[in-house]
Amino acid sequence: MQPIIPFSNINWSEAIDSLNQKGFALFSDVVSPEVCHALIEMYDTPEAYRSVIDMKRYNFGLGEYKYFSYPLPAVIDQLRSGLYPYLALVANDWMRKLGIPVHYPETLNAFLELCHQKEQHRPTPLILKYEEGDFNTLHQDLYGEVYFPFQAVLFLTDSEKDYKGGEFVMTEQRPRMQSKAIVLRPTQGQMLVFTTNFRPVLGTKGYCRTAIRHGVSEVLAGQRYNVGIIFHDAK
Ligand SMILES: O=C(O)CCC(=O)C(=O)O
Ligand SMILES: [Fe+2]
Question: What is the ipTM score, two decimals?
């Protein structure tokens, strides 16, 4: 299972512009439909996962997701470690703009070492399965003191053919303002990179923190599967 995207071929200046202006960037043809099918099939292989979450039980919405165990499936591992160095450059620029004294190291391994120093050892990449009526409430995926400000979602199902509803939703909240909603409908093989916690937005008094939350609207019919790629390990 290989990603079909060579990271060095991506138009990074376009992607970085999108991250800076909108807080997210969409990449197409990241994996083939065959890789998507193989990941969906792996949903029923219990050995691949460290835990299974019934979203209703925790009031996270309705549906189920599973956290992968280490070692991660090769395709997820490659996407995570391949994306990290590019995103770390943007992450460091954001921290500088916001005056936050945090520096993200150049490689994913060095960043995971920082997680381990804070007792964050557990893998966070996950696969989510939504059926008719399922949804994911607006949230942030922070699992401890150390976090990476970007995460990715790999869309495994076809948003035209496989399901109805199930939009990817983000809200942005600037200090003392109402939230803005962003609704996206990426499809099979696409990957969305978005803000995990907050992003810098230039206001009249310089950059301010705009908090981002994400979730999934109700699936009205069919089945929707996604893989979430979070960079930090969890406590
Ligand atoms: O199913 C989705 O599109 C979103 C999943 C999610 O919340 C995540 O990957 O962090
Ligand atoms: Fe999430």
Answer: 0.99
Give yes or no for residue 37 having a pLDDT over 70: yes
Alpha helices by DSSP H, listed for the chain, are: 12-22, 33-41, 74-98, 108-117
Distances (CA, A) of 41 to 18, 37, 44, 45, 132: 33, 6, 6, 8, 19
The Cα 155–Cα 229 span in angstroms is 11
Q: What is the pLDDT of residue 10?
A: 84
- Do 63 and 133 form a contact (C-beta atoms < 8 A)? no
Label residue 196 exposed, middle or buried (CB < 10 Å: 0-12, 13-18, 19+): buried
- Domains of the chain, with CATH numbers? 12-230 (2.60.120.620)
Ligand 1: which of 43, 66, 128, 230 to mutate, judged by most atoms within 8 Å of the beta carbon? 128
Q: pTM of the full predicted structure?
A: 0.97
